[in-house]
Design a protein that fits this description.
- The chain is globular.
- Helix 1 crosses helix 2.
- The chain is built from 5 helices and 9 strands, in the order E-H-H-E-E-E-H-E-H-E-E-E-E-H.
- Strand 4, helix 3 and strand 5 form a beta-alpha-beta unit.
- The strands form 2 sheets. Strands 1-2-3-4-5-7-6 form a 7-stranded mixed β-sheet, with helices on both faces. Strands 8-9 form a two-stranded antiparallel ribbon.
- The protein is α+β, with helices and mostly antiparallel strands.
Length: about 300
């Protein structure tokens, strides 16, 4: 087959976004049938149709374009954790080219390109029966499943050690790797986790207190119903982030948002009250003038 796999470039972003959208929309039409409105983020992952999300993934992740007969036919996106563990975040092939072996070739390329990776993992929708057969055919084994999601793993040799209730003090654990480790109710204090990489981890109900997270990257996180108090966010950027309230609206109380910039955002039904809005502008128009005109008309 005339297949090439190369690192994606920013100039490929528009085409890759279009192909990803087409591929995942076809899957949605196939598996999300009926009148009920079903959201399945494994079939249509957040930002799958967003150009900005594609640009982010090209910049921050290992994003490869799949070329078939000199044309981009799809992509495969992976995250490498440490030196030994990898995750296939997304793989998508143009709908008219699926079933031609292109996806299998992409996975083979990734495995050969990262020969030091001991274990690969991925998730797919419980609804996508064709994906289950595809991944099992390429050597992945089912490791966990729910009514909504199937998790697969492919590894080179098992490894398991139990250190429950252990204590480590004054240990040098630089460049240590943790994979499929149960650290529930563990505690870290007076420790350096600088440049640590957390991927596909369950940190629900955790507490972060007196932590230096300067220049940290937060992406693909579920922070619903979390609380941020006494937090400095100077210079922080929010992009392609869902702050929609729904039944539990997001709220800002006693926050200093001076000099903040909000562009290309949906602020439908947003409400600002009892706040200092001096100098605040919407589309270049001072809000104080808008309110003054409103009061005159009123």
């Amino acid at each position: 087959m005339e297949i090439l796999i190369e690192k994606a470039m920013m100039k490929d972003a528009v085409q890759l976004t279009d192909i990803m959208k087409a591929a995942f929309d076809v899957e949605a039409q196939k598996w999300l049938t009926g009148d009920e409105q079903i959201s399945d983020f494994n079939i249509q992952p957040p930002g799958y149709d967003s150009l900005q999300m594609t640009k982010y993934m090209i910049q921050e992740l290992d994003y490869y374009k799949v070329i078939y007969k000199n044309e981009i036919a799809g992509g495969i996106i992976v995250t490498i954790s440490g030196k030994s563990y990898g995750r296939i975040d997304r793989i998508f092939i143009r709908p008219d080219l699926q079933g031609c072996g292109i996806g299998s070739a992409a996975i083979t390329f990734i495995e050969n390109h990262y020969p030091y990776v001991k274990a690969w993992e991925l998730e797919t929708s419980a609804r996508q029966i064709n994906n289950h057969h595809f991944y099992e055919k390429t050597g992945f084994q089912l490791s966990f499943k729910t009514d909504e999601e199937y998790c697969y793993e492919k590894r080179n040799g098992p490894s398991k050690q139990d250190l429950m209730d252990s204590q480590f003090e004054n240990f040098d654990m630089g460049n240590t790797e943790f994979y499929k480790v149960n650290m529930a109710e563990s505690s870290f204090s007076n420790s350096s986790l600088s440049k640590a990489h957390f991927s596909n981890c369950n940190l629900s109900h955790s507490k972060f207190q007196n932590i230096n997270l300067q220049k940290t990257l937060f992406t693909d996180l579920n922070l619903s119903e979390s609380r941020f108090m006494q937090v400095t966010l100077s210079g922080v950027q929010f992009a392609e982030t869902n702050l929609r309230g729904g039944e539990n609206p997001i709220s800002f109380h006693g926050c200093n948002l001076e000099g903040s910039i909000i562009t290309n955002c949906c602020m439908k039904n947003a409400e600002i009250s009892e706040s200092n809005i001096s100098g605040m502008k919407i589309n270049g128009i001072p809000v104080e003038e808008l309110l003054r005109v409103y009061e005159q008309i009123k």
